[in-house]
Amino acid sequence: MSLDVSNLSKSYGAVRVTDDVSFSVPTGDLVGLIGPNGAGKSTLFSIITGFLDADGGDVSFEGQSLRRMGPTERARRGLVRTFQVPREFSHLTVRENLMAAAPAQAGETLIPLFFAPGRVRREEAALRDKVDHLLDFLNLARVADVSAGNLSGGQKKLVELGRALMTGARTILLDEPFAGVNPVLIEEISERVRELNRQGIGFLLIEHDLGALSRLVGTLHVMDRGRLIASGQPAAVLADPSVREAYLGGLS
Ligand SMILES: Nc1ncnc2c1ncn2[C@@H]1O[C@H](COP(=O)(O)OP(=O)(O)OP(=O)(O)O)[C@@H](O)[C@H]1O
Prior knowledge:
binds adenosine-5'-triphosphate; globular; 6-stranded mixed β-sheet; Rossmann fold; 24% strand
């Protein structure tokens, strides 16, 4: 089983930001997506998770095409993304942010509230347990009742990861989870990702910190100007002259 990206293309005007991109992320793998600024990585994430329509190509997840499905439907199937700039609800507390990310509960409609109050109470208790467990796991228990808007950049990234986990996702796309995060917290986020991966959750990560990413993933895909230019084990990919040229080209 896998996430399969097939021949995805997307243009803005005359500029092809995603140019016939194909690759697979086997379910339960840790995979990185790198490339210079503007290569098209975040655009690809948006297409994969249904925030943006491609001009051509297809995305399938665990054997099923996701064509015409929006982000909510894709999340329901177990595929979610986080954003480069975290999109937490800043006025809600950390705990409330996690609660709000849970799939719809029976108590959110009136009928079960009147006719199955026991079930509603049980669901709410299970949800609270899940949130408490995640707050501990992500080391956010100390700030559970702080407004998410007041957190540090690194803590916001952890809330984003927590919100993705609350959906029950099996494959999570992380957009620059280490950007603006101090080295100690980078190690902590990496360790949480490894632990989740041991539990069977797969990750595709966009990241500019190539050292931290290479220590985490088994496979790297490289994009440059919308195209996939290299794939393989991190050490081999980073030594590839075309990859080095893509990064240096951006500086010249
Ligand atoms: N809505 C849009 N309209 C026009 N051009 C866009 C739009 N969104 C993105 N682009 C362009 O598409 C290209 C790819 O952008 P994208 O954000 O996907 O790159 P990226 O690889 O994630 O870059 P970075 O590493 O800097 O975040 C860029 O040239 C960007 O300017």
